[in-house]
């Protein structure tokens, strides 16, 4: 994926450095000469011009994500077709993906988990109201913005949901069921695993899986193959969360288990309802902590955040991530 490095796209975007390659695309650190700013450039992996479905999916990602314009969504700047390739230009996020954060720290605090999930709910609520289902909620697509310009205020964290890559207009939801083909089965909803029609509720289930992983350090279902994991999503009840992390408050475990219900009607009825439950739970935990004066509020973004030599954010807080 280094063949693009040094290439100038559309006479203005200079591709500088390969960041990562995911399920269906590669992402590059890119310099926009016209506006003189760093951007992220996404190139759809081996996009065949004749693969009209892939091309259309990529165009939809651009349009759906650009139209969203929400503080918790990565901003889409431009969409370029050149050299038979498709390039998506977006806001460059300084900061790790939630996946990296979980891998580095194993468990997140209850209050951090609640805050991150609530911010994802905020953007999902807007998307769902407009008829968009994200379809690929996973910690790799949740970025934790952590440099000056994107942090709302000192000590707070700004979540940026990315990759409306397989977003489709809800009315089109019957078109394909390619969730498994495109990536991991870890976050598949039961209905997706069964090949049934997706609804907004499927995103809330996947967010429940992400919450489980933030608290337990692993998703609820693991297995040797994608199919074995998908089958568990379809029909196995998740293991108790406190089995993996005894510090998870029961009220929080209840929320995660409700999100992970097999039947959509047993889950939260909307992202707004789930967000409200998360905020309420956070409020109660904070009150309890204050009453006991034992659990300090976690510092979501360390104040001594420093950009590393690579330009990627690095945390240097000795207390960050400890319990
Ligand atoms: N806007 C962005 N700014 C900075 N890095 C990004 C951005 N979007 C994606 N990335 C990085 O590129 C990686 C690959 O992204 P992607 O192709 O969407 O695959 P996946 O979501 O499966 O990891 C992400 O995991 C993330 O580390
Ligand atoms: Mg992604």
Strand content: 15-25%
Q: Distance between the terminal alpha carbons, to the nearest Å?
A: 39 Å
Q: Class of the largest domain, according to the CATH hierarchy? A: Mainly Alpha
| Rg over C-alpha atoms, rounded to the nearest angstrom | 20 Å
DSSP helix fraction = 25-40%
Structural class: alpha+beta
**Which of globular, elongated, flat, extended, rod-shaped describes the shape?**
globular
- Average pLDDT confidence is 82
CATH H-tier superfamily of the largest domain: Transferase(Phosphotransferase) domain 1
Secondary structure tally: strands: 12
CATH topology of the largest domain: Transferase(Phosphotransferase), domain 1
Question: Do you know the CATH architecture of the largest domain?
Answer: Orthogonal Bundle
Ions and ligands: adenosine-5'-diphosphate, magnesium ion
Give the SSE layout.
Layout: E1 8-9, E2 13-21, E3 25-32, E4 37-44, H1 52-68, E5 76-82, E6 85-91, H2 98-105, H3 110-129, E7 132-133, E8 142-145, E9 158-161, E10 168-169, H4 179-182, H5 190-193, H6 200-216, H7 226-235, H8 250-259, H9 271-292, E11 306-307, E12 313-314
Antiparallel strand pairs: 1-2, 2-3, 3-4, 4-6, 5-6, 7-10, 8-9, 11-12
Helix pairs in contact: 3-6, 3-9, 6-8, 8-9
The structure holds adenosine-5'-diphosphate (ADP) and magnesium ion (MG).
Magnesium ion (MG) binds next to loops.
């Amino acid at each position: 994926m280094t063949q693009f490095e040094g290439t100038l796209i559309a006479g203005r975007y200079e591709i500088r450095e390969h960041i990562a390659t995911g399920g269906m695309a590669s992402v590059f650190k890119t310099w926009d000469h016209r506006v003189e700013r760093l951007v992220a450039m996404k190139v759809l992996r081996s996009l065949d011009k004749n693969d009209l479905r892939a091309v259309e999916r990529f165009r939809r990602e651009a349009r759906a994500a650009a139209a969203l314009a929400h503080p918790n969504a990565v901003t889409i700047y431009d969409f370029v077709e050149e050299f038979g390739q498709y390039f998506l230009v977006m806001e460059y996020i300084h900061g790790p993906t939630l996946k990296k954060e979980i891998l580095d720290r194993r468990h997140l605090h209850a209050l951090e988990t609640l805050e991150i999930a609530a911010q994802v709910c905020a953007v999902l609520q807007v998307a769902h109201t407009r008829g968009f289902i994200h379809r690929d909620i996973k910690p790799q697509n949740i970025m934790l913005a952590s440099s000056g310009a994107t942090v709302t205020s000192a000590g707070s964290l700004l979540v940026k949901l990315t990759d409306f890559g397989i977003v489709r207009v809800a009315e089109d939801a019957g078109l394909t069921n390619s969730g498994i083909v495109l990536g991991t089965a870890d976050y598949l909803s039961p209905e997706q695993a069964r090949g049934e029609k997706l609804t907004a509720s499927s995103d809330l289930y996947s967010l429940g899986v992400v919450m489980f992983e933030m608290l337990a350090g692993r998703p609820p279902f693991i297995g040797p193959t994608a199919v074995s994991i998908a089958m568990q999503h379809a029909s196995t009840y998740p293991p108790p969360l406190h089995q993996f992390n005894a510090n998870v408050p029961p009220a929080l475990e209840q929320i995660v288990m409700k999100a992970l219900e097999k039947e959509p009607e047993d889950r939260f009825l909307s992202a707004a309802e789930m967000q409200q439950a998360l905020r309420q739970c956070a409020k109660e935990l904070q009150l309890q902590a204050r009453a006991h004066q034992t659990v300090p509020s976690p510092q979501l973004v360390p104040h001594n955040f420093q950009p590393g030599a690579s330009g990627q954010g690095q945390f240097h807080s000795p207390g960050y991530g400890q319990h």
